[in-house]
Write a structure and sequence with these properties.
The protein has 332 residues and is of the alpha/beta class. 21% of the residues lie in helices and 23% in strands.
């Protein structure tokens, strides 16, 4: 970027929503740049290695570029290849491994203070923009168990692959797709796995091929399941569980995976003047344009949903950029 240049739009986050916003800016003749503290589509990169999306490929597409995959559901690897292709096709050139530390507003301008996320690389100069779009998602902020021992090294808030857990006793906490798929993968890798969920039943929105699978494993006692139970205490080689009736039991355990969802970085949002409301702490935005109460500041993608992260997916978040840019250029 040229020194002294003022961007029309600075986009924070290089996920699908951020990329789609940049493409729409390009089509409207707006100068835009993407800033990302990790890799391109970093959230997808950190998904479990063998993950298969619930949706069809056309619902992940942005910029009118088709997503080609081998089966009816795209895999994580196919999605990574696709979004790299999109970034090249539109010459987006996001500034990767560049963290936005702070955003200051002065009248009708925003100044983004940047920091390099790579050792030994000097921090970049600040960037000035007329508008800022926060497409920051929530994957960096996993929900954590509120139980003694939650800080132990055995507690892993993300699941990537099975190999590290071979020969161990693993407990997975959660009743959604992420937790259930992890439990099934671990079971098939000959890991001794237990499933724990505070609800009396697993999520009703499990993928159609996952639900019957886990039900059969539980029915056959291949995967012990403690439904209606919570983790009371985490110990080095055991867990204490409390069921809905108040009874406490202890089970042997080497690793604990609390896969219980995510939340936005509210401190970052609040520092920029974005207010949240309601029990789900939903950021306050205009439902049509995703404009916040701060003039020139917008949200896009999963961050819009607050704690109700099951409301916004790539399928609908990919359209946020179009609404944002329409508002920026003054279209209804």
């Amino acid at each position: 970027m040229n020194p002294g240049r003022v961007l029309d739009v600075a986009i924070v986050g290089a996920g699908p929503a951020g990329l789609a916003t940049a493409i729409e800016c390009q089509r409207r003749g707006l100068s835009a740049e993407i800033f990302e503290k990790g890799t391109l589509v970093d959230t997808i990169r950190r998904f479990p290695v063998h993950m298969v999306f619930f949706t069809t490929p056309d619902l992940l597409e942005i910029g009118g570029i088709p997503l080609v995959c081998a089966r009816d559901k795209p895999t994580r690897q196919e999605a990574l290849i696709y979004y790299r292709r999109v970034a090249r096709r539109f010459d987006l050139r996001p500034r990767l491994f560049t963290r936005v530390e702070r955003v200051d507003r002065n009248r009708d301008r925003f100044t983004l203070q940047l920091a390099s996320c790579r050792d030994g690389i000097p921090h970049p100069a600040p960037v000035v923009a007329r508008n800022v779009v926060l497409a920051v998602g929530y994957f960096d902020n996993p929900n954590r168990l509120d139980a003694p021992g939650a800080e132990l090294d055995k507690v892993h808030t993300r699941y990537v692959e099975t190999h590290r857990y071979f020969g161990s006793r693993v407990a997975v906490v959660g009743g959604g797709n992420g937790a259930v798929e992890a439990a099934l993968e671990l079971f098939r890798a000959d890991v001794e796995v237990t499933l724990i969920h505070r609800g009396e039943a697993l999520s009703s929105s499990l993928k159609y091929w996952v639900g019957p699978d886990i039900e059969n494993r539980i029915a056959r006692r291949e995967i012990p399941a403690h439904l209606g139970s919570v983790v009371e205490e985490i110990r080095p080689d055991t867990l204490l569980l409390r069921d809905s009736g108040g009874a406490v039991r202890e089970i042997a355990n080497d690793f604990l995976l609390p896969l219980i969802g995510y939340r936005p970085d509210y401190r970052f949002l609040e520092a920029m003047g974005v207010r949240s409301a309601g029990p789900d702490r939903t950021p306050v935005t205009d439902p049509e344009s995703f404009a916040t109460e701060v003039p020139g500041l917008y949200l896009a993608g999963g961050v819009v949903a607050g704690r109700r992260t099951n409301r916004i997916f790539i399928e609908n978040g990919r359209f946020h950029g179009e609404a944002v840019v329409r508002h920026i250029v003054g279209e209804r």
